[in-house]
Amino acid sequence: MIVSCPSCEARYKINDSKIKGRGAKITCPRCTHRFVVYKQSGPSKAPAQIPDTINNLDFRDVSIRWTVRKGLGQPEKFFDLATLQALLEDGQVHLWDEISYDLNNWVPIKSLVPLETHFWDVYQKAKKGEIPPTPE
To answer: How far apart are CA 37 and CA 25, in angstroms?
Structure first.
């Protein structure tokens, strides 16, 4: 299985047989961050199919506006994953900055790897009415 360090995003291949019980504590060789890796679930728990269009999915359709909180800088507001990826590539936003879709629950961007999965989960929940619209 391939795992990513949540701190520095370094990727490593780990033999599934090395993970005993529910999970194993791993120390990243690059940054020495310690984190837990869990066994991959069986085929019955296949991940939701994420559409190829996830990067350009307009969250205005489900009344969600994403906001990135950046240190002392102005917050960045956007409606699609492609915009966030462009902000990251341009250095206007960093992985340690925090992101929210409801202005209440803030998490570091680096904890949402892969971003596509998180964005798709939020979109699906908002579409079902499980997430209220982003307040103005």
So the answer is: 6
Asked if 93 contacts 84 with a C-beta cutoff of 8 angstroms, the reply is yes
- Tens of pLDDT, residue by residue over 3-54, are 888 888 788 888 877 777 777 888 888 889 888 887 765 544 445 688 989 9
Report phi then psi at 34, rounded to 5.
Answer: -100, 135
Nearest to 48 by CA among 107, 98, 120, 113: 120
Domains of the chain, CATH where assigned: 2-42 (no CATH), 54-127 (3.30.1490)
Rg for the chain, CA atoms, rounded: 17
Rounded CA-CA distance 18/63 in Å is 44
Query: What does the block give as tokens for 65?
Result: 């506006």
The residue with tokens 């961007």 is 109
0.70 cut: is pTM over it? no
DSSP state of 51: P
Record the tokens describing residue 10, joined without a space: 């370094």
Q: What is the DSSP letter of 48?
A: P
The pairing of strands 107-108 and 98-100 is: antiparallel
